[in-house]
Design goal:
This protein is of the alpha+beta class and about 375 residues long. The protein has 10 helices and 16 strands. A hairpin with a 2-residue loop joins β7 and β8. Keywords: ATP-binding, Cell membrane, Kinase, Membrane, Nucleotide-binding, Serine/threonine-protein kinase, Transferase.
Length: about 375
């Protein structure tokens, strides 16, 4: 990754101002949160310039016309997703020259086009390039290039055929069959590996916006983390945390981060616990359509997670009992540990990966292959 990492403690500038907004992801809405809590100690004295970030990335600089051609002029029927940054379009480029090709030929790409009226802006766009332009891992979505021309800001990614984990978990559609228990645990393991890589990298990156809509799936249900607009460099030296504006999505953000603005790797661990609980239960973290007392998934489910007699109350009914009860209990216990109110009692992402790898090994030993399932009566 070269000399670019030498300035990582001086990377993308902090967000400014107060805002509260909603971003549509798939068929669900998430309330995003932002506050003005920020410490001057966290603001770099000499942040990396825009030119430094773009020059350090190993990405192709596309022209706007190239991406216009690749997406058939951003046709509405090419839209494959919507987010806080803008619309995502399906396109095609040549695998070697990266030039536009005819639809259905060459490499399929996802082109995210900035919505000027959206809640995310230039700093989030730069953050994506800053991190994904330098970090490479099987469980991080691959960023191929970008376009910065006049007032056009676009990002070009590998295309993830199965869309987001959020859609598969929560959208009721003939296109989205309920995910099996083993596929859910595979997705959880892949995502955990992605977070562990970020925490262990030279940059000590804190992802800050881990949620099911940011976990994308390829044709084999391999999971990759996407959307690095809110990522931040972790604490350096003898620092215990990074003080920053509170940004993220309601329900997923760690309580100590919401209270103080102090961001650590354990903040990501809490968010992972929320997502793991969503995968176990098939419920959204915030769902006002649920009966009173069940609107907040974490508050409702926590008492059941370590109770062997009551764990079935949390399990997704759409699994129809096709899971090993012992495995379900251990996964629920892992979610409980990740959701500890005091961050010092949460495991590290390395420890989370170790538990999920053990569960994966047991499933393969029991079923003879990774995507089978057993039904406990």
């Amino acid at each position: 990754m070269g000399a670019c990492w030498s300035d990582r403690s001086k990377s993308v500038g902090t967000h400014t101002g107060l805002k509260s907004y909603k971003s549509k992801r798939g068929d669900g809405e998430h309330s995003h949160i932002s506050s003005s809590k920020v410490s001057s100690a966290s603001i770099p004295a000499t942040p990396r310039s825009e030119d430094q970030i773009l020059q350090c990335s190993n990405l192709k600089n596309f022209t706007f016309n190239e991406l216009k051609t690749a997406t058939r002029n951003f046709r509405p029927d090419s839209v494959v997703g919507e987010g806080g940054f803008g619309s995502v379009f399906k396109g095609w480029i040549d695998e070697h020259s990266l030039t536009p090709t005819k639809p259905g030929t060459g490499l399929v790409i996802a082109v995210k086009r900035h919505n000027r009226d959206g809640p995310q802006g230039h700093k989030e766009w730069l953050a994506e390039i800053n991190y994904l332009g330098q970090l490479t891992h099987p469980n991080l979505v691959k960023l191929i290039g970008y376009c910065f021309e006049d007032d056009h800001r676009l990002l070009v990614y590998e295309f993830m055929q199965k869309g987001s984990a959020e859609n598969h978990l929560f959208r009721r559609s003939a296109h989205f069959r309920p995910l099996s228990w083993n596929v859910r645990m595979k997705i959880a393991l892949d995502a955990a590996r992605g977070l562990a890589f970020l925490h262990n990298s030279d940059a000590k990156v804190i992802y800050r916006d881990f949620k099911t809509s940011n976990v994308l799936l390829d044709a084999n249900y391999d999971a990759k983390l996407s959307d690095f607009g809110l990522a931040r460099d972790g604490p350096i030296g003898d620092q215990s945390h990074v003080s920053t504006k509170i940004m993220g999505t309601h329900g997923y953000a760690a309580p100590e981060y919401l209270a103080t603005g102090h961001l650590t790797a354990k903040s990501d661990v809490y968010s992972f616990g929320v997502v793991l609980l969503e995968m176990i239960s098939g419920r959204r973290v915030i769902d006002m359509n649920r009966p009173p007392g069940e609107h907040n998934l974490v508050d409702w489910a926590k008492p059941y997670l370590v109770n062997k007699r009551k764990i079935r109350r949390v399990m997704d009914n759409r699994l129809d009992g096709h899971y090993g009860l012992g495995q379900a209990q251990r996964a629920a216990n892992l979610a409980f540990l990740c959701l500890a109110t005091d961050p010092k009692y949460r495991p590290s992402m390395n420890e989370v990966v170790a538990v999920l790898e053990q569960l994966s090994s047991e499933r393969k030993d029991h079923n003879g292959q990774p995507n089978g399932g057993t039904k406990e009566g």
